């Protein structure tokens, strides 16, 4: 038995072609397609963010109004930048180095005055709408009184007349108008006093 070649067992010729066939067989085109379907694709590299060509222009424009090199309320020949108070650093809008009374010297006072200014601006916007809308309606055919201008509306009430909107007379005299103003404006002011001056989550564009 030891004399037998590895290719013969009990005189029978062994054929290793089958085993070599399995070892060297290349996958068919269909098999390659199936394998490629389940093959994990390499992750694509993220594309670099496009750099806007206008960024330098925006930075240059902001530098004119914010920061230490911003414009100040007087030309450089009339006011030296060393005379601008140190607490006016140009970080907020409208800071042009002018604070003769030192109102913004204390950070707490500055935040309070900033909140007051925002409140006054909101009341002014509401008043502007109340002045423009009736006059515009009167101009385009809606009858809002003989002269629907804000500085004559109060005169109508003083003369004992009533207001008119879209041709309908509103039974409001001077006493009712004053009471309504006290209730509405006073209610808004009372709400503000109760909730403080933290307006970040109550009003948009609070900067």
List keywords for this structure.
single chain, two-stranded antiparallel sheet
User: Which value, in Å, is the CA radius of gyration?
Assistant: 42 Å
Low-confidence stretches: 1-9, 16-24
Largest sheet: 2 strands, antiparallel
Tell me the fraction of residues in β-strands, as a range. Answer: under 5%
The CATH topology of the largest domain comes to Chlorophyll a-b binding protein
Fourth CATH level, the homologous superfamily of the largest domain: Chlorophyll a/b binding protein domain
Entry summary:
This protein is mainly alpha-helical and 207 residues long. The protein is built from 6 helices and 4 strands; from the N terminus they run ββαααααββα. Keywords: Chlorophyll, Chloroplast, Chromophore, Photosynthesis, Photosystem I, Photosystem II, Plastid, Thylakoid, Transit peptide.
């Amino acid at each position: 038995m030891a004399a037998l070649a590895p290719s013969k067992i009990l005189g029978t010729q062994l054929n290793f072609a089958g085993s070599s066939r399995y070892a060297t067989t290349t996958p068919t085109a269909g098999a390659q397609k199936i394998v490629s379907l389940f093959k994990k694709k390499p992750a694509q590299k993220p594309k670099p963010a496009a750099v806007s060509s206008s960024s330098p222009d925006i930075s240059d424009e902001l530098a004119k109004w914010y920061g230490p090199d911003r414009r100040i309320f007087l030309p450089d020949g009339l006011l030296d930048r060393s005379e601008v108070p140190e607490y006016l650093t140009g970080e907020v809008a409208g800071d042009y180095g002018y604070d003769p009374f030192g109102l913004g010297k204390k950070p707490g006072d500055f935040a309070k005055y900033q909140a007051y200014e925002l409140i006054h601006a909101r009341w002014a916007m509401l008043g502007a709408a109340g002045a423009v809308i009736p006059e515009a309606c009167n101009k385009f055919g809606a009858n809002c009184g003989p002269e629907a201008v804000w500085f004559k509306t109060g005169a109508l009430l003083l003369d004992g007349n009533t207001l008119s909107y879209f041709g309908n007379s509103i039974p409001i005299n001077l006493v009712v108008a004053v009471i309504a103003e006290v209730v509405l404006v006073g209610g808004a002011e009372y709400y503000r006093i109760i909730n403080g001056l933290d307006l970040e989550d109550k009003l948009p564009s609070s900067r």
